[in-house]
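User: Can you predict the 3D structure for this chain?
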Amino acid sequence: MVFTQPMRSAKTRLLLHPLTLYVIFAILILLKLMLLHHNLNAYYITMGLLDKVIAVGSLMLLSFWVWWLPRRGMIASLALLHLLLTALIYADMVYYRYFQDFLTVPVLLQARQVDALGDSIATLIYARDFWFFADWLIVIPCAVILLFGRRHHSVQTSSLNTSSYNGSYGGYSFTSPTSRKKRLRRRLLAGFTALVLGLGLGAGPIYYYSKTWAKGLFDNNWWNVSMYNVTGLLAFHGYDVYTYVKDHIGFGPEADPADIQQAKAYFTDRQQSNTVERDQALFGKYKDSNVIIVQGEAFMNFMIGKSIGGQEITPHFNELMKESQYYSHFYHQTGQGRTSDADFGANISLHPLPVGSAFVRYPDHAYDSLPSILKSQGYSTNAFHAYESSFWNRFTMYQNMKYDKFYSKNDFVEDDPLGWSLSDSSFFRQSVEKMSSEADEPFYSFLITLTSHHPYSLPKDKQQLDVGEFQGTMFGNYLQSVHYVDAALGSMVEDLKNRGLWEKTIFMFYGDHDNSITDTALYEKFLGRPLNDLDMAQIMNEVPLLVHLPDGAEAGTFEKPSGQLDITPSVLHLLGISDDSYYHMGNNVYDGSERMVVLRNGSFTDGQVFYIPSDDYIYANGTCYELSTHAKTDINACKAGFDRASERLHVSDMLITYDLIRKFREE
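Assistant: Here is the predicted structure, written as structure tokens:
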């Protein structure tokens, strides 16, 4: 027999009723979801009544099971769920501030990188965020009191002889086994009711969206923000877990045969079009030349050729332009994988994944990487990055890409520590020394810089640029970092010349991604002119590409659009290696044909128009710009390009996800 204390007052019983506690829990989490949405500032995405209904339904699907627990178990579970969901929602908010995207399972599996971000994460946490956790000051103490307060403890006594008796004894009321069964049935019924309501409120509207204005999103999603617009945050994470388990546990279907045929047809057409136009003057002109490619951290295009306070920001880059090819509309094509995505796009010529990093998710899949192709042509292949070899899973991925040697943090003497690891100046010097003394020619060397990494904190003794009114701001710090990297680049070029390597090397330098500084007013102040959405899209997506050929030929500025995926096909062309049999999606910038550059979020440009998708990813809500006037034009002017861009992203995703290159090779 279980004895409990006498009945409390009606108000107390109402306040402590399981339904009241459950409603309070749901309201608090809903408010936090609304606060997150408010902080996104995403165009075309609202959180209307139906979105709140989806959020409540999703929350019920996450928590329906708490009704099946005894009272104290329910209280403990609700408190724990509250803490965990608060942490998840806040983590999403901080992550969005940097990446304009949401956390996913692959990203969480890369959690080691979160520790390494250090100061970068600190700058993304605001003092006002305290209010996001303010309710913890009430929730935690109340949960402790309800769970462990003496007045709420049950008093256990031995069973009485009568097992069906209901009554009172010694000031306590007691219930019979029959009554306990009734309470158990009520709990089970409440839980199943919450489950059914959750399915109806959460899944119902999402299913409706997927069959109407969001049709096809679940089949071909390449931007998590658009998925969030349909599902809300909690259901987005549920779907993300589902897709991850499906991909990695293996209970899901394999690639659709139609997708396989589409991929085959795409590459058949590409191979045929590659043979139409080819600049024979440059094809193979630099056969057996060394190749050095430098990927510059957050090195953007908007400040190339610009000055501040009477000083050139990138004087060495500007000087190098005079004897090199400079691509003034070169785009980074990265996604969540950021630096690893730039590496993936440049060396493998496939689009990065819409979720996570291919380096982490599919490091064992088959790729036609630049180092593996050059290795088969007799090159020694080496990668250089003065950081942990496990970061972005590089050590494993680089083995698959057939690098002979990966020079990581432990291979460098830390004689000039700066920022994340080693200064770029020392990194370049030591890397060139290793190339000169350890690499057999011809060699391919791929270098990744570090100094200009967010949050761009450069010691005073390293700051050589007068940034004027930007002094003390992150934007000013960014300009300082870029100026420092530019000086290190100049020293590297001189070192290569002194060692006799410059004249027999194809040298490339490009930026990996944007700097994550998105305040339009800062760029307007720096550039001295108003900016529209197209201007900002180009500023945030354009990074410089510099190509120096061994004899300094073909120098000049090239305005046709190009992107990171174009690097591998273009290098192979210069070396006289046909790209026709490889599964690459980039353009050969030397073939003379018109070309399209597709960004991971669905934006694209063909040199005539530039399409910017809306946050809800409905085509008609996007914007089409005429590049000649920088003004909006009829949305239909971008439709054909949008369809081609969508196909490219879909084919690339299928190729990577289902390891189709291996499948095609084995057929």
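Confidence is low (pLDDT under 50) at residues 1-6, 151-173. DSSP finds 23 helices and 23 strands in the chain.
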